[in-house]
Amino acid sequence: MNQADQMIAILGIGTAVPENRLDQADTSQRLAQALSEHPDSMRWAKRIFKQCGVETRYTCEPNLLESAEDCRYFLHKSNHTIPSTAERMETYKRESVPLALHAARNALLDGKVDVSDITHLITVSCTGQFLPGMDAELVQRLGLAVTVNRIPLNFLGCAAGLKAVCLSRQIVSSDPLANVLIVCVELCTLHIQPSIEREALFGASFFGDGASACIVGTAEPTHNEIFQLGDIHSVLLPDSAEEMVWEVGNYGFDLYLSPNIPKLIGKFIPEQVERLISGKQKPEIWAIHPGGKGIIDTLENMFGLTEEQTRPSRAVLKNYGNMSSATILFVLNEMRQELKKRGIGPVNGLSLAFGPGLTCEMIMITYLPSVISQEHLLDEVHV
């Protein structure tokens, strides 16, 4: 395949989660016990835990499965110390790399790409930092070339996973021989706060831990079940800088998510989507980052989407929670499995994710059951 007709695509996807499973109903009950002396906060927490669309998620921290009085991340009267930011970062350093390796190896296997063919490594995370970083660890443990181009994307929030995909598309567009390995790892539950404040309890209700990875490169005839990558669009929404805030505190990172976020998305995103689509056929598949149930509901209503079109996003939120930057590849993997099972394709679509700023990242995608000629593709779908 020459440069003129190259097909840039996500060639393989891998995911991984920690072994500790948080059941939403059980976690809600234990948190309610910890808040028993604060009835207003207890009632609010129970309601938001029930309504946020999550049933299970995963955590790297086994202490989060302990009883209310023994959990150091819940409000309590015992002598247990609250984990400091330094302690949480030690846990992040210990637990993040094995998850990253698992997801990366799965992506390499799924994409039929040899580790020696990886030219670029993009590592993504906003829930922890250490130096030398995860990129250096992955080079050594995966056996990547020591000359691999390493690009860490740190502290960019939920939209960073899709930002990495868009950046990878640009890299391969400039160099068709490039193969970009993206690895996203987020240990969100490390930042659960022992608090009665609604903002902290809201964040505790639906964030989970996980890692995802993918390979972006030029598709070959051996590649099947891939997402071709099309036009990209990035926008910083006006007057919304204070709506999503993520700051380093003494006891982990402090998160604030405004209840106005779905409304702001409803106000500004239709124009941005239309700018990207530019009069082309309406996307059939929608890979939406499930930043929260309200975001999915807003986009579903705004664009007249069916339950089938939002099912992959809701399924990931239900089974894993919001894993920040790692989540969008879980959604694409869920979508791919469903399309393969139904024998559907080629089919065009859109992937979008939101992050602090407020930032919106978008990219046009096309699911292909197998690699076909560019000419036939252009006859069937718009990319």
Walkthrough of the structure:
- The chain is an alpha+beta fold.
- It contains 11 helices and 13 strands.
- It has helices at residues 24-34, 39-51, 85-111, 134-142, 160-174, 198-206, 261-277, 293-303, 307-320, 327-342, 374-380, and strands spanning 8-16, 20-23, 56-59, 120-125, 149-154, 180-187, 209-218, 224-236, 244-249, 252-257, 285-288, 347-355, 359-370.
- It has a 9-stranded mixed sheet, with helices on both faces.
- A hairpin with a 2-residue loop joins β9 and β10 (252-257).
- The two termini are 19 Å apart.
Layout: helices, strands, pairs:
Layout: E1 8-16, E2 20-23, H1 24-34, H2 39-51, E3 56-59, H3 85-111, E4 120-125, H4 134-142, E5 149-154, H5 160-174, E6 180-187, H6 198-206, E7 209-218, E8 224-236, E9 244-249, E10 252-257, H7 261-277, E11 285-288, H8 293-303, H9 307-320, H10 327-342, E12 347-355, E13 359-370, H11 374-380
Helix pairs in contact: 1-2, 2-6, 3-4, 7-8, 9-10
Domain Chalcone/stilbene synthase C-terminal: 235-366
Family: Belongs to the thiolase-like superfamily. Chalcone/stilbene synthases family.
Domain Chalcone/stilbene synthase N-terminal: 7-218
